[in-house]
Amino acid sequence: MNATTLDTGVLPGWSTYAAAGGSALLAAIALLAAGSFSVALLLVFTVLIAALATYAWSRRVEGPRRAKDRLVTLVIVSAFGLALIPLLSLVFEVAKRGIPGLSLEFLTEDARGQIGGGGAAHALVGTLVITGVAALISIPVGLMAAIYLTEYGGNGRLRRALTFFVDVMTGIPSIVAGLFAYALFALIFGPGIRLGVMGSIALSVLMIPIVIRTSEEVLKIVPNHLREASYALGTPKWRTITKVVLPTAFAGLVTGMMIAIARIIGETAPLLVTTGVVDSINSNPFSGRMQNLAVYAYSEYRTPGVFKQASYDRAWAAALTLIVIVMVLNLVARLIYRRYRTEIR
Amino acid sequence: MEAHADTTTNAGQLIAAGGRRRWGDRIFSNVSVAAALAILALLAGVAAFLLIQAAPAVTAASSELPGGKSLIDYIAPLAFGTVLAATIAVVLAVPLAVAVALFISHIAPRRLLLPLGYMVDLLAAIPSIVYGLWGIFVLGPAAVGPMEWLEQKLGFLPFFEGPASVTGRTMLVAGLVLTVMILPIVSAVAREVFSQAPRKLQEGALALGATRWEMIRMTVLPFGKSSIISGAMLGLGRALGETMAVTIILSVSGIVTFNLISQANPSTIAANIALDFPESTGLAINTLIASGLVLFAITLVTNLIARAIISRQNIQ
User: Are residues A95 and A129 part of one domain?
Assistant: First the structure.
C-alpha cells in the first residue's frame, strides 16, 4: 500500500489507550500463567506487547511510515518513563527510610559520648559553616570574574584564557579538589592536618566555576541599551555596573548563587579527605576537625555502631535532610527568580 | 563628556581618553582583573600543589610504595576500573538521554515543560552520597535476580561470566548508578541543541508530509549530532571523577576483569582515594595524590575534547 496517498486510514483516538490497556491485561495473564508475576516484569512486557501491537495495527491501517512513527514515539515515551523510575524510587526510598531516624534529638544533639545514639547537630552545623565559608570565598571572586568577562574583558588574551580555564575547572573531579586543599595545607602546616576551612577551600574550587558560568549567562542578557543610556547621562562605568547592570540582573544572580550552593552542599568526597570525622559540635573552621552531613551519612553507613539498624537510620535521616536542603534551595531560587526578575523589553 | 553622541564607542575608553578616569573606575576594574587572575592562579595552584605532593611517590623505590608495587602497577588497575565504570555509564546513558531530550523538546505537551525542567534540575542536584546509599540498599538488592538471569542466559559473554554476586555490590550496579547520575547532564546538553534546531527545516519537513519521526531524523538529529557526542564526553568526564557512589557500592578486590556481575571487582581511582586516604600516612598519601593527578589528567583530556567539539559546532 502506498502510504503517501490520501486514502489511507487513521487509527481512532482511543487506539493508544486500547493498546496500553490490552497489552497490560495480556501481559498480566501471561505472567500469572507462568507464575512469575512482578510489577517490573509486568511493565516490561506491557511495553513490548504494546509496541508490537501498535506497530502491526498501525501498519495495517495507516501504512509503514506512520507505523514507524508511532513505534518510535512509544519507544521515546517509555525511555522517558524508564528514566523517571530511578528518580521516583530514590525520592520515595529516602523519604521512607529517612523519616524513622529523623527526630528533634537528631537535629539538636551531637554524638559526643553517645554509644550507638546521638544526633547529627554537629554535622548540620559543620555543613552550614563549611558551605557558608565556601560561599563567602566563591561568590565575590566568581561574581567579579564574571563582571570582568562581560564588562571589561573585551576579546583580550586574559578573557580567552579565563574562559578556557573556567571550562577546565568545571571538569575537576571533586575528590581532586579535596586532594588539592589537603596538599596546600599539608605543605604549610605539615601532613595529617584536618580543618573545616580546608573543606571550604576544596568546595570553592568546585563552586567558583559554577558561579562564574551562571553569573556570566545572566549578565550577558542585560541589554546593551541600558548601559548606553547610563553612559549617555555621564555615569562612570563602575556606577553603571553597580547601579544599572547588577540590579537588572539581580534576580538571576541570586538564583544562580543558590543553585551553586545547592550543588556543593551535598559534596562528600572532598570533605572526606579534608575536614575529618568528629563527634562534637565545632563551629570554628580554623581549629580542629569538623563533621558535615554528607560525611556523617557515609561514616554511619561505613562504620555502623553497636546497633546497626540505628546507624543506617541515621545515615538515611542525614541523606533526607540533605535532599530537603537541596530541594528548598532550588525551590526558593525559582521563587525568587519568578518574583523579582526584571522584565526586559 | 564631550563625545556622548557617539554610542558605538566604549564609554570607559572615552573617559580614559579625556584623562578624567575616576578613581572608582580604576579600583573597580582592577578588582575585577584581580579576580580573574586569582582564578588562574588558583588553577595553577591546584596543578602545582598536587605535583609537589605527588613527586615523592614518583621518585620512591617501588618496595616503599603500598603493596610493594611500582607506581604504574599500582595505578593501572585503578585506571582500568575507572574507565570501565564510566564506559558502562556512558553506553547506557546516551541513548536514554537522547530519548529524554527528544521527549522534552519535541513530544511532551507544552504545559509539562516547566515541571519536567525542574525535575531534571533536581536529579542533577541530588548529592552523590544519596545515590550511593540508594545504590547499595535499593538498586543492589533489586539487581541480584536480574544478574543471576544474565549469568544463566548470557553467561557465554565475558561480561556476564559470573558467578553472580548475591549482594549486588558489582561493577554493573555501580555503572547503573553512574548512568542515573550523568543522565541529567547529557540530556541537558542534547535538549539545549534539539530545541535550537532550525524551525524552518522542521516545518518544511512536516509540510512535505513527513511524519514526526521522519522530521526528527532528517532535521533535528543531524543538527544535534555533534552536541550529543560532546554531551556524552561531558557525562564521561563526570562519571570518571565520581567518587562516593562507587566507593559505597563496589566490593573491591583490585583485580582486572571485564566480568561485571561478580563479587570481585576492580576499584576506581576516586573510590580508592576515598577508601584509603583517611587511614593513610606518609608515602601512601603521596601515592594516592599521584593517582589523583592521573585522574585529573584523564578527565581533563575528556573535557577538552568535549569542549573542542562544542566550540567547533558553534563556529559552524
Answer: no
